Amino acid sequence: AFFWLVSLLLASLIWFVSVHLSDREDARLQYGLLIFGAAVSVLLQEVFRFAYFKLLKKADEGLATISEDGRSPISLRQMAYVSGLSFGIISGVFSVINILADSVGPGIVGIHGDSPYYFITSAFLTMALVLLHTFWGVIFFDACERRRYWCLGLVVASHLLTSGLTFLNPWYEASLVPIFVITLCTGLWAFVTAGGSFRNILKCLSCEQEDESRVMMYSALQVPFED
């Protein structure tokens, strides 16, 4: 989360400086700078995700050195999941804070022609971003470990695409639907990357059914005693 905050700080500084050095009366230019700031923010997030990967690799080597069996107690997939989830949570928190800040202002959403679905759509977008950052973390770490640079490129491209789709708002149908399609596809990709398969899902469900049947059999065999 700290690494994500640092990337946001640097992106904000770049956007702030570019706005003050440009013509602030030109609305079209300022909108272009806003898109530029979002793209810089995405790129910096991925750069800091890579920096965090390198830091965790160093820490993993140190943990393996001091462990008794020569292995790190934390796997790379666990670190990737935690890293992506942390990026997603802090990103979602900042998104929600901005939305809540808008909600405490005067007036009611939709009273001046604004969309009445602003808050519910923002909630779904925030949820998608939290999930996406988690999936991106799993894919990104695996790609760095196996040196699959095309996977890294796809992660960065999908992140840029997702960020760019938000500029279609308040045309929410054009932004929300593609973002959730990207989330679903990225989730399946991360699931396969983490070693998941359809066979594993069936084995998991069969184990749950066996556990439930054992509990039912155990409950049926229990006979209450009377004094």
TrEMBL record:
GO cellular component, one term: gamma-secretase complex
One Gene Ontology term from the biological process aspect of the record: protein processing
Membrane spanning residue stretches: 31-48, 79-97, 117-141, 148-168, 174-192
InterPro entries, A to Z: Aph-1
Keyword set, alphabetical order: Membrane, Notch signaling pathway, Signal, Transmembrane, Transmembrane helix
Main location: membrane
Subcellular location: Membrane
Membrane topology summary: Multi-pass membrane protein
Signal peptide positions on this chain: 1-19
A Pfam family matched in the record: Aph-1
Source organism, top-level taxon: Eukaryota
Function of the protein: Potential subunit of the gamma-secretase complex, an endoprotease complex that catalyzes the intramembrane cleavage of integral proteins such as Notch receptors.
Subunit structure: Component of the gamma-secretase complex.
Family: Belongs to the APH-1 family.
Protein name: Gamma-secretase subunit APH-1
Species of origin: Trogon melanurus (Black-tailed trogon)
